[in-house]
């Protein structure tokens, strides 16, 4: 309520400007702050607001951000994905109601944060969505030690599994064989993220600040929905594994019953939400001429209207689940029970 009361005047002032948000994730020391500095240097005409989250009481990362006149805010003494999640909402409120001018918000999480919990704030809170739009989650991966931490530190796998874009950093420190192994293991974790290799986070940043990863068109593309010429743009593998993190993909020709489907996702995620890091789907609902888009982060299903089904394309449902120990047979059984009958 507080958010609504304070944000309405802001909305009037900003004429419904929606600010894009980029979340930077990656395991401890992967190069997040180095990359953030590179973004700032490469985009002198963009005014950034930056939220730095540090686990300890003293926020060192914010001092490591290069000297700029950007608005830098600190969330210390806790991890943004759990203990300071409420403080993040308060800070977002302060950002839009205070005297701050910015074009883009960047959140650098701690190296042990689960980025899906941060993304969830932007996906599920209607008031926040009316002011901010999550553009994408970029994960920095440390080529030197990623193979040692995968499968040992769950957060490292979660960060990769959830990313929309992966920068494999410290490339010079890894030989060709290691790079191949990194690529193979991380792609198994997340077959949908685009990626590139870099040193000191030096990549072209313009496109990374407008990933539009949560837009309908991007979801369609990632799920390999045939384009208007009937071509499948990306093949979706049915199952890929890395340790206990799994990505399960389904294509169904049968149409779904909206009520059953909503009920299924709501109940399943309420009970087992912690196991699902990310769900994306384009769903064919019986009797409805538009696609239903499903996006879920951190246990909250969000359904939105997609484009109308084109006459010459198959009305196929495509669903991808990324999470921990997800059993294909159980998921499939649950989904089949939601078919229209
Ligand atoms: N050799 C090498 N070192 C790098 C590269 N990128 C960053 N570093 C160094 O790695 C160290 C950690 O970089 P940061 O940017 O602070 O990493 P971070 O992910 O923000 O670290 P945390 O916030 O502690 O998780 C610093 O000493 C950087 O100078 C790279 O490509 N190659």
From TrEMBL:
<dbReference type="InterPro" id="IPR011629">
    <property type="entry name" value="CobW-like_C"/>
</dbReference>
<dbReference type="Pfam" id="PF07683">
    <property type="entry name" value="CobW_C"/>
</dbReference>
<keyword id="KW-0378">Hydrolase</keyword>
<dbReference type="InterPro" id="IPR003495">
    <property type="entry name" value="CobW/HypB/UreG_nucleotide-bd"/>
</dbReference>
<dbReference type="Pfam" id="PF02492">
    <property type="entry name" value="cobW"/>
</dbReference>
<feature type="domain" description="CobW C-terminal">
    <location>
        <begin position="245"/>
        <end position="339"/>
    </location>
</feature>
<keyword id="KW-0143">Chaperone</keyword>
<dbReference type="GO" id="GO:0000166">
    <property type="term" value="F:nucleotide binding"/>
</dbReference>
<protein>
    <submittedName>
        <fullName>Cobalamin synthesis protein P47K</fullName>
    </submittedName>
</protein>
<dbReference type="InterPro" id="IPR051316">
    <property type="entry name" value="Zinc-reg_GTPase_activator"/>
</dbReference>
<keyword id="KW-0547">Nucleotide-binding</keyword>
<comment type="similarity">
    <text>Belongs to the SIMIBI class G3E GTPase family. ZNG1 subfamily.</text>
</comment>
<dbReference type="GO" id="GO:0005737">
    <property type="term" value="C:cytoplasm"/>
</dbReference>
<dbReference type="GO" id="GO:0016787">
    <property type="term" value="F:hydrolase activity"/>
</dbReference>
<dbReference type="InterPro" id="IPR027417">
    <property type="entry name" value="P-loop_NTPase"/>
</dbReference>
<comment type="function">
    <text>Zinc chaperone that directly transfers zinc cofactor to target proteins, thereby activating them. Zinc is transferred from the CXCC motif in the GTPase domain to the zinc binding site in target proteins in a process requiring GTP hydrolysis.</text>
</comment>
<dbReference type="InterPro" id="IPR036627">
    <property type="entry name" value="CobW-likC_sf"/>
</dbReference>
